[in-house]
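One chain given next:
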Amino acid sequence: MLQLEPGNRFLLEYLEKLFNQEKPSSVDQSFVDFDSTKYHLSTQSSKSKNILTLSIEILCWADLVQHGARAVLEREYKDHILPEAETEQEFNVSLKIDLETLPKDLATRTQLLESFSLLKRNALAAPFEKAFEIQKRLEQNPPGPDEVVKKEDLMIVRYRPEEALYLLPSPDRVTAIFSTIFKEETDRIYGKVFLQEFVDARRRPSCQTAPQVLYTNREPPLEIRGVKGIGSLETGENVGYVTFVLFPRHFTPTTLPSTITQIQLFRDYLHYHIKCSKAYMHSRMRTRVASFLKVLNRAKLDAALGEGERERKTASGRSFVRA
């Protein structure tokens, strides 16, 4: 299966193109990413064409800010992020990119440009980093045998209007729950097949250390039922809940960036492959229909050669005319 890129490919290639230009030019580009994320790349003025402003609007920014997204972006883009007062209108975050001050070294410059393309990924990483920090704190101070782990630390990221991500840290694990909507019956069937493969894959010897994956539909998992402040949960045949159980071995300092990247792309990964599977099935059906039409065309009787005469063929393919 294809692994989706965490960064925005168009943004990365466009920045490389602008840097390699001999003469700076005015820029005003708007483009989108998964989950209705909007970007705007533009020059500040006609006099300073080498200075670019990169702005992003994320649908769930209000949730991300509560979990420290602004602090994470200031850590990653400390020399480029603009103050909130200077952020472009109708956008959540703006970065200032000076093409003349970019590193001349190819490897260093490529790494910096790739970090700009990961702007959305780094913003969405904030709730995961917070959940992992809470897990470490709970692990160091575990509750007593008679105490019940409270659910006040449940974090919600409403990344789409009808879908959300729930993060629940506990002393020995972090549980990530995705809610997703299948708007068509075929999508639900394909999704169930894909998700069942995730569940069964852990039985393989090579996947024993992978996170545990659980899938439920109609009803939400027990971890998020009855929690105050999250509103009414979606239920029904077209609603699915996918649960990932992450243990401390999955978010060590070396594996933490990869884990965050893979988990936050899961919803897009799932629906992307559902659409690809439907497109593949449709292409196979069109090919099969075309082959059937060819068979039917070959089975048609040839037009009469004359009144009372008709061309016929033997089993070996020879033709003869019978009066």
Q: What stands out?
A: The chain is about 35% helix and 25% strand. The first strand starts at residue 28 and ends at 33. The chain has a mean pLDDT of 84.
